[in-house]
Write a structure and sequence with these properties.
Helices cover 15% and strands 44% of the residues. It is built from one helix and seven strands; from the N terminus they run αβββββββ. The strands form two sheets. A four-stranded antiparallel beta sheet has the order 1-2-7-6, with no helix packed on it. Strand 6 and strand 7 form a beta hairpin. The protein is elongated and about 75 Å long. It starts with a helix and ends in a 16-residue tail after the last strand.
Length: 124
């Protein structure tokens, strides 16, 4: 019972640390003629800590928060954004750069961005 209480208090302390004192990220979206740009600024998080991934057509940006607990360092993920990529984004052309303390993700448009159209013949 005493061990369970200690673990519960450690978990509560950990959650308080994770949810307290963390600045909210700034996210902005800009559309250009050739694609979309996502700018993300996460105060207190270095470029090396940020991770950008595409998995199953979802774009996600995250980082890990190191927390000392019981003499061990545990890393907890913190998600900044997770959003589906629209059909008109060229997934293979996505790239990220770091400029002026911001992560900039460039999402180029593909040929479907102007709309897709074709005549469908009616078969007999």
């Amino acid at each position: 019972m005493r061990e369970q209480l200690r673990q519960l208090l450690t978990t509560v302390d950990l959650l308080n640390t994770l949810n307290g004192g963390v600045s909210e990220p700034y996210i902005s979206y800009t559309d250009h003629s050739d694609g979309r740009e996502v700018r993300i600024r996460v105060p207190g998080v270095s470029k090396e800590m940020l991770q950008v991934e595409i998995h199953n057509n979802l774009l996600s940006v995250s980082y890990h928060i190191p927390v000392e607990t019981s003499g061990k360092t545990v890393y907890f993920p913190r998600e900044v954004i997770k959003q589906p990529l629209p059909y008109y984004i060229e997934i293979q052309g996505i790239h990220a750069v770091y400029e002026d303390s911001e992560l900039v993700i460039k999402l180029p448009f593909n040929e479907l961005s102007n709309g897709y159209s074709r005549k469908i013949p009616i078969e007999e």
